[in-house]
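Teaching note: in complex prediction, the entire set of molecules is handled at once rather than each chain in isolation. The prompt given to students was simply: 'Predict the structure of this complex.' The entities are:
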Amino acid sequence: MLTIKNLHASIEGTPILKGINLEVKPGEVHAIMGPNGSGKSTLASVLAGREEYEVTEGEVSFKGKNLLELSPEDRAREGVFLAFQYPVEIPGVSSTNFLRTAVNQVREYRGLEALDAVKFLSIMKEKMKLVEIDQKLLSRSLNEGFSGGEKKRNEIFQMAMLEPTLSILDETDSGLDIDALRIVSNGVNQLKSSENATIVVTHYQRLLDYIVPDFVHVLYNGKIVKSGTKELALELEEKGYDWIKEEADAASV
Amino acid sequence: MTTIIKNKATDLFLENNPNFSTFENLRKNGLEFLEAKGLPHLKEEEYKFTQISKKIEQNISSFKGAKRSELTSENLKSNLFEGFEGDVVVFNNGHFDAELSSISAQNYSFSKLSETQPDLLGQIAKNEKDPFTALNSLAFEDGIHISVEKGKKVEKPIFLIHFNKANEGQIINSRILIEIAENAEVTFIENTVSLDEEVYFSNAVVEIKVNQNAHGYYYRLQNENRKAIGANNFATDIHRDATFTSVATQLQGDMLRNNLTLNLLDSGCEGNMYGLYLLNGKTHVDNHTNVDHTKPHCDSNELYKGVLADSSRGVFNGKIFVRQDAQKTNAFQQNNNILMSEDAIVNTKPQLEIWADDVKCSHGCTTGQLEDEALFYLQARGIGKEHAKGLLLYAFAGEVFEHIAYEPFKEYCIQLVQERLGSNF
Ligand SMILES: Nc1ncnc2c1ncn2[C@@H]1O[C@H](COP(=O)(O)OP(=O)(O)OP(=O)(O)O)[C@@H](O)[C@H]1O
Ligand SMILES: [Mg+2]
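The expected output is the structure of the full assembly:
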């Protein structure tokens, strides 16, 4: 579904991603871990099409298409979903209005007819249950004044509404208490199928107790320096990143 | 410019004005002022960003008052917005059009200025305050005078609609005087419509007196043709416990200068000024507002917002004057701008002069671009870039319309702005 080959990207001339290779197949869950500043969010942003990042080398194909050629909105319409590490507050744009616009533009692209207000609301209600999000929250401006946890929940709620094939969750678990974590993970798990795939970026093994990964990758200094199964996450939890950094630094000398 | 005024104004305005002898004192006073100072020149501080005299000199060839143009009920019909019900006062090149107007005069009286010749005329918008007011005093033929009756509410808004189109003369002089008696209430809507794409210069003066405990609402739209030049002087005297709210929207023109003055003359009164300028092409809009707190316990609130695309230009100058007597004043001012292109310019300047010590005043201005982060967030959810921009801009601009209490007009403004944001930005 997603193939990343030798991906290099920089921001304002500074290289951040330095040759990423990754293959994600339908039905899989990949976890990406790594120390702060290693490039995890950068990778997520590049995949979602953030223009500030310049891809200097490499290829990304998604469902057979060259992802890098598509605009951010077309990537979303093709089925890429990024749950932001820091969801943006947008005063004056109502959550409901925004979501209806998004859903209908995605549907239009996929050749489906637009949802009318009634249908939209009933789908919305159903998906709201999934992440136990309060109706009141959605009657406000998008993310405005939401708590950290509410913002993260809203991300997963949007994901549920947009039905992506590839979801990239960038530290969706950070800052969540145990209950919220359980709710959010539950939501993600219910949306999982054999047709779609998930990439979870996280610092914490505890998320992976809920969303069990098929593969765990360690990103360090712009490269995936180690890949393994879920046991790797446990090892990282126990030993930290220093041994990996040492290994990687030694290899690159 | 001074030359134009000295030679042409006296010759053309005066000789072409059949009503010169009415309001003779007002006119002579205006003339004196103009002869002494002329129209604002290049170095005039108040007009330094808006070279309107030069604009007039370069674009107006016939310095005569425009006569009535052909105007039909069709013109009127196509400019009434959905849901509007109320009286309509039609101006044809600044001249009152009795035939197309529909005036029930319920709870208010309506007359031409020449009929009532009120002493109040020129007392609120004073000739010496602005040369264009003086010019208007000199040049207007006749105007209208509306007086809302004591203790009465004019239930439906009064729609003042101007149709402008140059003919042998290119100058349009309208003059409006409104009195709202004690405990009365009224809402006005004002719109200026260009009948073609040719240049004209509209020089309008509106004076409003809001008497004790009365309430006035004034919603104004300027969406003129791309060559329109306008100077608008709008002055309000607000008396004890009275309130007045102005919401002004500018969407198009060549160069528009608006002077809005609220005089808070006695305690307990409130003045509100809201504005949106949404500009593209080469449109230049200058809003100079001025609120004068003279007595204690008065509030003023001001919010002007601008969105500027292409090589448009916006000027905002907000004066707040708090006199020594005006203790316990609350005065708030905000001006926020979004620039959509590198060629767009905004000049914003708050001017606070505070002589009382127990006051709450705040002001702030910002000028920025559309936030990339927000735009990306919307796009990442599948919303097309242009549409996303429109959503964000509307989220920014729409706040101004919250202050329009007359729903059909609010809807109309929202619709105009959304159309604009959907297509032009
Ligand atoms: N806009 C920017 N300008 C300059 N440098 C940037 C910018 N954005 C990110 N970087 C740098 O790129 C590097 C990678 O950042 P990124 O956010 O991808 O890390 P991360 O792995 O997601 O970290 P964290 O775990 O803290 O979320 C960091 O060194 C960061 O400082
Ligand atoms: Mg990150």
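Point out the following to students. The first strand of chain B starts at residue 87 and ends at 92. Residues 407-423 of chain B form the longest helix (17 residues).
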